[in-house]
Specification:
Strand order of the largest sheet: 1-4
Mean pLDDT: 86
Helix content: 55-70%
Number of strands: 4
Oligomer: single chain
Low-confidence stretches: 362-379
Strand content: under 5%
Order of helices and strands: EHHHHHHEHHHHEHHHHHEH
Shape: globular
CATH architecture: Orthogonal Bundle
CATH topology: ABC transporter involved in vitamin B12 uptake, BtuC
Structural class: mainly alpha
Radius of gyration: 26 Å
Largest sheet: 2 strands, parallel
């Protein structure tokens, strides 16, 4: 009598080798899913397109903040200043010099990178709360500095850019009535470039040095990490990315006011988005950007007067209690119960294993007296 066997089921989680065909297919599927969601977002009404544009802009700024705070461990409360520097760079060049807005992005990147290097200099000597206070001073001082140069920045009256200087080019086929769709795609394209930059930067040797600097500075120095170079470079590239996001914000808004748009509140908002999305994650800034735009929008009917900050703070506390690693951290933990990616073996591991096996074969060879010594000494 034969007994029927039930078909064996693959145990969970499924193990996938990094760099394998299955892994590449999942990556392609993820990119295609994000592209599909971006196309779907552009097909909504103009109000929703405007909200999504703001969310994508803030996501790029959060990604820049993530480099210096999430991956390198240097808390910065002054990224609102870098965001504002990029915005005013674009606004001044377009309104005063009649530049093409897209060409101003490179100038914003360079100027903010230099300012980031300057602000990063104190990080060579101080860290922790002391460094946060230095960047806090930058965030507080930025609106005051802008107001002291009314001839260039518009001062307290703000800087207005002519709408016709911000219209989409003729080759896009987008008319003035659909110009917000044009800003949406610029913000989406910038975010895609920023995420690719962050992924390549944090997954290589530089990313390992950044994490080592964050976790153990003494150990990082012992293994040859140049702490000064890592801190300055990270501050510079972080400020540059946030500044370019500010340039897109200037295009989208068309009117700049440092007293209302680039205050300390913006820095706190960016940090909040970083924490909600997930610190030291590539996709977390997208979630954070959506959260800081849509949570206040969805709860607008429940907030009244002075209770606005209290209500938003309560939601933030609840989210942090349920998801201490952010939403991306929660999704990562849940996904590991289903699929796990097995890291690729470091280069040279296979060679070392072959050498070990070869040593075993040689040790098993009979000696001159005809005795086979199979002992293998490992040090």
């Amino acid at each position: 009598m034969t007994m029927s066997r039930e078909p064996s089921r693959a145990p969970l989680p499924l193990l996938i080798n990094q760099g394998s065909a299955v892994h590449r297919s999942l990556q392609i599927f993820g990119v295609a899913l994000l592209a599909g969601l971006a196309i779907l977002g552009s097909r909504t009404n103009s109000f929703q397109v405007g909200l999504l544009t703001e969310a994508l802009i803030y996501a790029s700024a959060i990604a820049g903040l993530n480099l210096v705070t999430g991956y390198t461990g240097m808390l910065s409360i002054g990224h609102s200043a870098f965001f504002g520097i990029g915005a005013y760079t674009t606004g001044i060049l377009v309104s005063e010099q009649n530049w093409n807005p897209l060409w101003t992005f490179a100038i914003s990147f360079l100027i903010c990178f230099i300012f980031g290097l300057i602000v990063g200099l104190p990080a060579l000597r101080i860290r922790g709360i002391n460094l946060a206070l230095v960047t806090l001073a930058l965030a507080v001082a930025f609106p005051e500095i802008i107001d002291r140069f009314p001839g260039l920045t518009g001062g307290t009256l703000g800087l207005n850019v002519n709408l016709f200087q911000l219209l989409p080019p003729h080759w896009t086929g987008i008319g003035i009535q659909n110009r917000f769709e044009y800003y949406y795609w610029i913000a989406a394209f910038l975010l895609a470039l920023v995420l690719v930059l962050c992924a390549n930067l944090t997954r290589g040797r530089t990313g390992l040095a950044m994490r080592a600097t964050r976790d153990r500075e003494i150990a990082a120095t012992a293994v040859g990490v140049n702490l000064a170079w890592i801190k300055l470079f990270t501050f510079g590239i972080s400020a540059a990315v946030t500044g370019v996001a500010g340039s897109v914000f200037a295009m989208y808004l068309g009117s700049l006011s440092a007293d209302s748009s680039f205050t300390l509140t913006l820095s706190i908002t960016l940090i909040t988005g970083l924490v909600i999305g997930g610190v030291a994650t590539v996709v977390g800034p997208i979630i954070g950007g959506l959260a800081i735009i849509y949570i206040p929008h969805w709860t607008e009917g429940l907030r009244q007067g002075q209770t606005e900050g209290l209500f938003f703070g309560t939601i933030l506390i609840i989210l942090m209690f349920v998801m201490p690693d952010g939403l991306m951290g929660l999704l990562t933990r849940l996904s590991r119960h289903v699929v796990r990616v097995k890291p690729r073996a470091p280069e040279g591991t296979s060679r070392a294993r072959e050498g070990l096996l070869a040593g075993q074969d040689r040790s098993a060879t009979p000696d001159s007296e005809g005795k086979g010594d199979t002992t293998l000494a490992l040090s």
